[in-house]
Fold ATP-binding cassette domain-containing protein.
Amino acid sequence: MTKSEKNLQAKRISFSYMTYEKNSGLLGSLHDFVHRRKRAVHAIHDISFSINSGEIVGLLGPNGAGKTTLIKLMTGILPVNEGKIDAFSGINPFEKSSAYLKRIGVMFGQKSQLIWDLPPIDTLIMLREIYQIPKPVFEKRLSFFTKQLAVSEQLQIPVRKLSLGQRIKFELICAIIHYPEILFLDEPTIGIDVSSQSNIYRFLREINKERKMTIILTSHNTKDIVALAQRVIIIAKGEKIFDGTPNALISEHASQQIIEVTTDSPIEPLPIDLIELGDCHYQFLSNDSAQLPIALAHILSLKRRDGDLDEILVGLFSKLEGKK
């Protein structure tokens, strides 16, 4: 499969679900028993994109933006309400056909497929049977994966006795033991140390390069995106607001430098464009035409610098929150 071929295409997809509002207290519960109030939540709205074979794409957005829901739509866990997801030129993920499931790998950082009281090798042997991997091939892959991720000595240790970093690495091995063409990672480095993160980054870059494996990941850790993603899609309130390279995202906001301000007293109410960093310490994005959102008489110090990806996203998400 060449890089120009599409692994996934989303065409104007939308997804919503119904939830219920609940009143507090006994009387509220009795009222809800008779008159339940429904509320529609629009998690994904009219999103389109295509992902080529071999791309590493990062999905970014604030909490509740719809990132995990989008992953669930692409993996077939949830059906789209409107639009269409087309995988490998003709497959609908929600049909859950073996032709699709055998070609994808999925890892959710907060959900485990490892069996808590058994060693990782038992889960991996089960996956070997599920994916019908020949034993010599399986053993060669497993040896390579565990060596690269430095967990060879933990294969026979019960999962409950492993460190978080070791468990995450075995979760990753479970997701790629069959060498999927698309690997979905939802918060793959959540809660693990810097050394383990670096090890996982190097491993994923190598797998992507050697196997042309498409990787789609969500993360609140921008280090994941900087280290891995060739392209980012930003989602906010269920809508796509950016699709391009990380450098393009930074360049788009490069003219909006970070201004850090220290004031003589707290600013109340806080303007939409201003982000509070600490007591009397604020920052905002600025360009040449922007007006200072603070009276000069209250400024004790002012510092201008270019923003990094973290700061650009903080500013972007804060503005979106202010538009609610």
User: Anything to note?
Assistant: The chain has two domains: 6-26+37-245, 255-305. The longest helix spans residues 194-211. The mean pLDDT is 88.
